[in-house]
Amino acid sequence: MSAAAIELSREIPGVGTLSFRETEKRRDYWLLAEGAQRRVRLPSVTSVLRETWAKPHLLHWYAEHGRQAPVLLEQASARGKDVHRFVETFMSTGEILPFESFPAQHRGYLQGIARFLWERDPKPIETELLVCHPELNYAGRLDLIAAVDDVVTLLDFKSNPSGRVYHEAHVQCIGYTIANDRCTGPAVERTMIVGISETGGCFPVAGEMDVTRKVWASALDYYRTLKRLERALNGAG
């Protein structure tokens, strides 16, 4: 039985109506700009990085796991959704979802995220917020903006067996930050990736925002160039 689609929408003053729809197979962002009659589809931050970021470690991972890779990817996706649901519920309502209501193999990760929430005590400002940048032509949904140690921080949570934080995650966060600024959201002073391991480890890593902005700008430019090439080649064919 397939899961029901998730549909969200946000009215953004000075920008328009940003809509999001997620199914088992895809995620779509659509923007109806103020004064426009027709909405346009925007690529997501993650899709931009997926098409532009070299991932040699991922190639090695596929080679190591072979036919098991698709199953493991599905499991990782389910795990990530559980972690995000745990965080969003606590940040939105203060409720701590019982570990027993999740699959047993996810409980170590939930212990890790609970440890972060307990030790750093983030004060929520925005959760699961839709953002976009109409001029730069992309959109996304950020995890959490919160005051951490009295610093307004954009947080993203990454779960994997070792709790490793990859550089790409910092670039993803800066893409969200720039779009959030365009949507006149809370002024973010810092980005932070929280790596969560299967044994309950918690590894928060603050980003280098100035350098990461340059990398994101380069990724966007490369993405647009690739799309121009695709259109040219398709037209030539």
What is the molecular shape? Answer: globular
For the record, the count of structural domains works out to: 1
Low-pLDDT runs: none
Q: Report the C-alpha radius of gyration, rounded.
A: 18 Å
Mean pLDDT across every amino acid position = 90
Largest sheet: 5 strands, mixed
Order of the strands making up the biggest sheet: 5-6-7-8-9
CATH architecture: Alpha-Beta Complex
Global structural class: alpha+beta
* End-to-end gap: 40 Å
CATH fold-level topology: Lambda Exonuclease, Chain A
Top-tier CATH class: Alpha Beta
What's the SSE pattern? EEEEHHHHEEEHEEH
Helical stretch tally: 6
Helix content: 40-55%
In percent, how much strand structure appears in the residues?
25-35%
Number of strands: 9
Q: What would you say this structure looks like, in words?
A:
The chain has helices at residues 45-52, 56-65, 69-93, 107-120, 167-182, 209-236, and strands at residues 6-12, 16-22, 27-33, 40-42, 123-133, 138-148, 151-159, 190-196, 202-206. By secondary structure, it is of the alpha+beta class. It is globular, with a radius of gyration of 18 Å. It has one domain: Lambda Exonuclease, Chain A (Alpha-Beta Complex). It has a 5-stranded mixed beta sheet with strand order 5-6-7-8-9, with helices on both faces. 43% of the residues lie in helices and 28% in strands. The model has no long low-confidence stretch (mean pLDDT 90). The chain is built from 6 helices and 9 strands.
Give the tags.
Lambda Exonuclease, Chain A; 4-stranded antiparallel sheet; single chain; 6 helices; 237 residues; alpha+beta
